[in-house]
Amino acid sequence: MVMQIDRRSMILGGAWGIGALALPAGQALAAELIGARGFTHAVASGEPGADSMLLWTRYVPASDAESVRLDVEIAIDPDFARTVGGGTVRTGGYRDWTAKVTIDGLQPGTTYWYRFVAPDGSKSPVGRTRTLPQGDVPRFGLGVFSCSNLPYGWFNAYAHAAARDNLDLWLHVGDYIYEYGNASVRPGQGIVGRTLMPDTEILAIADYRLRYATYRADPDLQRLHQMAPMVALWDDHESANDSWEGGAQNHQADKEGDWNTRRAAAMQVYREWMPVSDEPWKAYDIGTLATLYRTESRLLARTRPADITAAASAPDADAALKAFHDGVWQDPSATMLGSTQESWLAHAFRANARTTTWQMVGMGTIIGRTVMPANVSDWLRPDANAKLVQRYRNSVRMAQNGLPMWMDRWDGYPAARSRLLRSAQAADSDLIMLAGDSHNAWAYGLVEDGQPAGVEFAGQAVTSGGMEGDLRGDPTAVARGFVAANPELKWANTHQRGYMMIDISRDRVTGEWLFLDTIKARSTRIASTHRMSVERGRRVFSA
């Protein structure tokens, strides 16, 4: 990669916009990212099929060309002695010089190596990918990630997973980036050298592009993308915290402009920079072993989360919370997915449960029911301010009135949750939910109408802080307290970072939570692990 860092090349090369040139922090890194020429961010693959794969790269020409054509080479060996296909793709500044091409005519369950070739003959780094299998499949391995807040730590989870040889596919269930600026980092929590670009919260297309360029410059994330295909879905921070169809908690229209404009920018740039198709949701068959579903639950049809603030702080809070419980909270029109996607998923369950053993749903937010334990005040850090203490007390009172901790998760949408789980039961599905969002690790046995509906493996964050930021009690006691207070919750870890490995076989699915020793320094040392399994036809975790 050749760097030509002058003002003109910054504007032409990256199509960032002039606002990106005057950054209060990280000037040198910003200039390097914006002025980079050639293949700037390695390669990636995604949207796997049995005979196809989407391939991604970014190439900025040294000339002032408005667009360029890239060739693609695919081989069954890393030295490209046996090329078996390829293609072409055109890109330009209009899409931030990112390029995506879908290659057909591949063989099922086959490992391929690929690279892009520029007009000047230069070649991209080599990527490895693997098509989905067909027919009987004895085993398949998923690496599951979520919540990668760059300033808070190194992407050691990505590095550890990329070095493994027993994982076939990555699933990223959201919060791949965060929208906040550097000023949002808690004092003493940021890592030297992990500076966000741009410095401020991202709002416009140029902002989102530079933020993705910053993340994708990370060598461990690049390596992850190079080693295997990824199925990715967005959660909220790819746009703004607690987003829904008509707005977000972290969007103030009076200061930050029209929400639909920001939402459109976030969606456009996500689709530019990620190895994903433009389809809002999709199913992927892993032979007869499983069907994996990519869902969308944030920007297209999700209704606004119910606001419980007034009820929790009312003079007669118990009466207000009971009314909230019986009224607003149970609204059947509240939806996470929207009626079109709900219908698609229900029909897919019915069709695919006949042909594939496991129905595995990637979801941004957790579906398991969770209330706050009554003794949470015993675990709060000694220096907790009055506002934090009151927030936890409100959550305890909510629990006493049958209400969940978070209205932003699936248990804040109980009617929609019931519809999803009942559709899985009606299809006689062996349902596996795979989720992130909470930053902590959880295992749920899902129940609907008094019957098992499936299980949920909810993964911890790659770097984003968990409940340990508020709670200073013994973490094992905290976890036990949550399990005791929540019948669906079978296990929890509320203080460590890492990722999940999901091992799928015909007779069982085993989830392994891997916890890194640290995220404050670059290291792939594993501090601890935890495994849980569900057997075919049981729909509950094994004892």
UniProtKB/TrEMBL annotation:
InterPro entries: Metallo-depent_PP-like (IPR029052), PhoD-like_MPP (IPR018946), PhoD-like_sf (IPR038607), PhoD_N (IPR032093), Phospholipid_Metab_Enz (IPR052900), TAT_signal (IPR006311). Coiled coil: none annotated. It comes from Sphingobium yanoikuyae (Sphingomonas yanoikuyae). Residues 41-131 form the Phospholipase D N-terminal domain. Signal peptide: none annotated. This is Alkaline phosphatase D family protein. Residues 142-513 form the PhoD-like phosphatase metallophosphatase domain.
